[in-house]
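Quick log. Single chain, no ligands specified.
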Amino acid sequence: DPSVLRGAFVGHTDAVWGLVYSGTHQRLLSCSADGTIRLWKATEVAPALNIFNDNQEMGIPSSVDLVSSDPSLMVASFNSGHTSIFNMETRQRILTLESTVDTSSSSCQINRVISHPTLPISITAHEDRHIKFYDNNTGKLIHSMVAHLDAVTSLAVDPNGLYLMSGSHDCSIRLWNLESKTCIQEFTAHRKKFDESIHDVAFHPSKCYIASAGADALAKVFV
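-> predicted structure:
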C-alpha cells in the first residue's frame, strides 16, 4: 500500500540487527552487521544524520538503545563483548562499560542491551547465559548473574522499572525482581528450531500484557 510506506532508509550494506525510535527527537537508530550504527531523521527519507563505529573499532554492533535518563545518549553492545555509551549528536564515545571479556572467545557476544526506564543503568544479555547490570555514570559492573540454561537473547523492563523480563534459546521466559535480582516466574514459551528459540520479548506500555517472538515462527501474547 503506497499510502503506508513512507520510503526506505538506504545506507546499510548488510543485515540490520536492531532498531529503536526516539519520539522525543523523532530519530531512528539502527545497528547492522555491516559494523555501523546509524542515526536517521524519522520524519523524512534522507541519508543518515550520523554514522558510528564505521571503522569497526568496537566490533560488530548487536543491539542499541536510547539512554532513558539522557535522551542525547545511546548505548550500544557489540559481538566483541563491549558495551559503550555514545553522544548521538557529537558522535563522541563517552564511556565504555567495564568488561572482563576474553575477546578470543566467541561466547563473549552480547545479544541485547537495554536502558532502564527510570534509573541510570544499562542491562546486557549475553551469549554465555549471563545478564549483567552496569552503572551508566561510572561504567562499573553492578551485578552479574547466570540467568538461563542457554544464550540470553532478549530483555525488556516494565514501564514502571520494577521487573525485568528475559528470553533465551533455552525456550523459557523469566521474570525478575529488579531490586532483589531474583527470578519470580518462569515459563516455557516457544519450541526450538535450529538450536534457537526466543528472539524477542516485550511489555505492553500500559496494560498487563507481555509478548514474545520465537524461531518457531510464532508471536505470542500472555496475560
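The first strand starts at residue 16 and ends at 22.
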